[in-house]
Design brief:
Blueprint lengths: L1 H10 L10 H9 L4 E4 L6 H11 L3 E5 L3 H13 L4 E4 L5 H12 L5 E4 L1 H4 L2 H8 L3 E6 L19 H7 L4 E6 L4 H11 L6 E3 L7 E7 L3 H9 L6 E5 L3 H13 L4 E4 L5 H12 L5 E4 L12 E6 L6 H8 L9 E7 L1 H11 L4 H19 L5 H7 L13 H4 L6 E2 L1 H13 L6 H8 L5 H5 L16 H13 L3 E3 L6 E3 L1 H7 L6 E2 L19 H18 L3 H4 L2 H10 L4 H4 L7 H22 L22 H10 L4 H8 L3 H15 L15 H14 L5 H6 L6 H18 L1
Parallel strand pairs: 1-6, 1-7, 2-4, 2-5, 3-4, 5-6, 8-13, 9-11, 9-12, 10-11, 12-13
Antiparallel strand pairs: 14-17, 15-16
Length: about 725
């Protein structure tokens, strides 16, 4: 049977070898032994039950809590030629009937079903007349009240299981602590002790946590590093989603919101646009993403603190599923902790205890000064056996080693003492930095001896140090109000009896990251990406269902020019080649001829060292055309871009290269000279990083395109003077 499994792996799924544990899991399931499978998102857990399903004579039932996930999985399986259907409330009566008919006629191998559909009497009667070989419980952590997403209906699955005693039961999930694992086994009455727990370490995810100072500004700065890339931004509330969406839309980004307050149609439309690469960014509450199998998400931003580590791990797991590098940024703020605590306090005592435990673990992770993978993996019961991962902000900070910060610690602790231990971190840092904020002056804190003595570090560096002081037990933070209090240990520091060491992190916002050099042809990648989008649109499928970014990256790296070479590409089996391979092969051959390139004769068993997909910088083309004399209106007509997008391109071009003759921009403005002068004065007063403060100061009477235009003029003129 394993030979058959290997054959399906190659011809149907297009993979060369099994990932760790997959072969052993498949062998166990084919032997009809119950199994608990825990693999990180993107780790290949679906394959573990999909391959046996294609080998079994009977049907494999897959219980899934998410309609979008079922739809996504079934679409991908059908593209591979597998007989898969789903039954849930999203189907019309006619579609539902057709799928039932397929089941009755034994034309189905995989049946995806929602729990509420599975428990219907008519469903049970239907399945009782069929041969059921396997029951797979997806998102199995939902069965445990100790998990982060407990669903009471999952507890009833055992009743269905008992109706089919000959069927093997497989529980799969991406997140489960040892306690949740036990709960899953007990609730499903899994026989034997076949536990398969893959490493929780997603090596291709770069983990970064930055103190949140100006969230919108920080987000926009981050997004500039990933032009035209797919990403998800998670927010705590619907209100925050809507606010951030407006800010990013007005800044020219391709973005849509997603939360439960939108209509079903709008949510569905926004999700489809994102899946199909028609928009780049989704700003969402945690309601988004669980059922999304989009493989080319290059970044995830947590604009607010997630509820717990399991949620955080699942949410960052939606990026980099193609194995390429993805960036995960969490903006950390103590005010976010207060929001979470407010909701915790509304819970029953038992639930409150679990939620408090989750929050403490999350804070330990966020405030750590060591490699982030240590606390993250240890939470899931896994030991990280390396001193540094090389893929997190703590490991990659320029000042990697601990340094003596006794004097800065004394300054900070002294300031806490002089303000009577009733203020939070941000207020203390503002005093140290000599802030002229009203709250500082009102309280007379500008008269303190500690006022203005902390200018050696930026605000963000002080915030990072303060996290370490808390972790080291020099300070205790009040859970409810966030105020800081001294400890016995801190008095020893103030007396000079104890040395303090910590990391001095380079300012998150001022750091200029060196981008990793790609080993593939970017221009060809862009050609293939557009071809993929064109095919996907015609078939009404998400682009990644055709080929993943990793597949396109390998094509652009190895330049295959025949079927044999093409079949060595990741994710490309015989079925995919017959459907699309020849189309992409022609594009590659034409490109190679045009550019006099030859196929690279490398060992195809090893993937090229690709870390991140860097697409053609369209803003360079826009900037060069503008400099050569093309007006903004002409660029809009020529490219079919919105004016706001053209202005964003010009802004990005100016930041990187400057702009000769910026006075030309004034010819494009419809404001009077006096109105332009007023806007430019406001840039001097309020800064030019974000436009919202300017827009509001002008009582929202000047539209964003005018402000974008004048900001470019302002920055270009300033750069020329400097």
């Amino acid at each position: 049977m394993l030979d058959k499994a290997n054959g399906i792996l190659h011809t149907v799924f297009g993979y060369k070898t099994f990932r760790p544990l997959q072969e052993e899991i498949i062998k166990t399931i084919l032997s009809k032994k119950d199994s608990l499978v825990i693999m990180p998102t993107g780790g290949g857990k679906s394959l573990c039950y999909q391959i046996p399903a294609l080998i079994f004579n009977g049907i494999t039932i897959v219980v899934s809590p998410l309609i979008s996930l079922m739809k996504d999985q079934v679409e991908q399986l059908k593209e591979l030629g597998a007989d898969a259907i789903f039954l849930n409330s999203s189907l019309s009566q006619e579609e539902y009937g057709k799928n039932v008919e397929l089941l009755i006629n034994n034309n189905v191998k995989l049946l995806y079903v929602a729990p509420e559909t599975l428990f219907l009497e008519k469903t049970i009667q239907l399945l009782s007349s069929l041969k059921i070989d396997c029951i797979t419980v997806d998102e199995a952590h939902c069965i445990s009240e100790w998990g982060h997403d407990f669903r009471p209906e999952y507890r009833k699955i055992i009743e269905i299981r008992k109706l089919f005693p000959d069927a093997v039961c497989v529980a799969v999930t991406a997140t489960a602590t040892p306690r949740v694992q036990k709960d899953i086994r007990d609730s499903l009455e899994l026989r034997g002790n076949n536990n398969f727990i893959a490493s929780f370490n997603r090596e291709n995810l770069y983990l970064e946590i930055a103190p949140k100072v100006n969230g919108v500004e920080q987000t926009i700065r981050f997004l500039r590093k990933y032009p035209n890339q797919s990403g998800i931004i998670y927010c705590f509330s619907r209100k925050q989603v809507d606010s951030l969406y407006v800010d990013l839309y007005n800044a020219g980004y391709s973005v849509r919101p997603y939360h439960a307050g939108l209509s079903d149609e709008e949510r569905k439309e926004n999700q489809e646009l994102f899946i199909k690469d028609d928009i780049q960014i989704i700003v969402a509450t945690i309601a988004f993403g669980m059922g999304i199998n989009k493989s080319n998400v290059r970044f995830v931003i947590h604009f607010d603190l997630p509820k717990n580590i399991e949620s955080y791990y699942q949410e960052i797991g939606r990026s980099g599923r193609d194995g390429l590098r993805a960036h995960c940024l969490l903006l950390f703020s103590y005010s976010d902790i207060q929001k979470i605590r407010y909701f915790i306090n509304q819970k029953e005592e038992h639930e409150k205890k679990i939620a408090e435990r989750h929050l403490r673990a999350l804070l330990n992770y966020a405030e750590t000064g060591i490699c982030r993978r240590f606390p993250l993996l240890s939470y899931f019961g896994e030991k990280f056996n390396h001193q540094k991962c090389g893929m997190c902000d703590n490991c990659n900070s320029i000042d990697k080693d601990l340094v003596d910060v006794t004097i800065p610690a004394q300054k900070f602790l002294s300031c806490v003492k002089r303000t009577n231990e009733i203020f939070g971190t941000v207020h203390i840092v503002d005093i140290l930095k000599g802030s002229k904020a009203e709250k500082i002056i009102e309280k007379g804190h500008d008269k303190l001896s500690t006022y203005g003595i902390g200018t050696e570090y930026s605000k963000k560096q002080w915030l990072f140090l303060s996290h370490q002081f808390i972790q080291q037990g020099l300070l205790v933070q009040d859970n409810e109000f966030g105020s800081l209090k001294l400890t016995e240990k801190s008095y020893q520091v103030l007396k000079g009896n104890l040395t303090v060491t910590a990391k001095i992190k380079e300012d998150f916002e001022e750091r200029i990251k060196k981008e990793i050099k790609e080993s593939y042809d970017e221009a060809l990648f862009e050609i293939l990406r557009k071809k993929r989008k064109s095919i996907a649109d015609k078939l009404r499928l998400p682009p990644y269902v055709i080929f993943s970014d990793k597949s396109l990256s390998e094509m652009s790296s190895y330049l295959p020019v025949n079927k044999k070479e093409m079949l060595r590409i990741h994710g490309l089996g015989e079925i995919k080649f017959e459907k699309y391979g020849h189309i992409f092969l022609k594009e590659i051959i034409d490109y190679c001829k045009e550019n006099k390139l030859k196929s690279i004769n490398e060992d195809y068993n090893h993937s090229p060292k690709i870390k991140i997909v860097k697409k053609t910088k369209s803003y360079q083309t826009t900037g060069e055309k503008f400099i050569s004399g093309t007006t903004i209106d002409e660029l809009t007509q020529e490219t079919k871009y919105k004016k706001s997008t053209i202005l964003k391109h010009l802004y990005d071009y100016t930041i990187e290269n400057g702009l000769p003759n910026p006075e030309r921009l004034l010819n494009e403005s419809h404001l009077s000279e006096n109105e332009r002068y007023k806007v430019l004065r406001l840039f001097d007063e309020l800064g030019a990083e974000t436009l919202s403060p300017i827009f509001n100061s002008l009582k929202q009477k000047v539209d964003y395109n005018e402000l974008h235009l004048l900001r470019i003029f302002y920055i270009a003129s300033k750069m020329r003077r400097e």
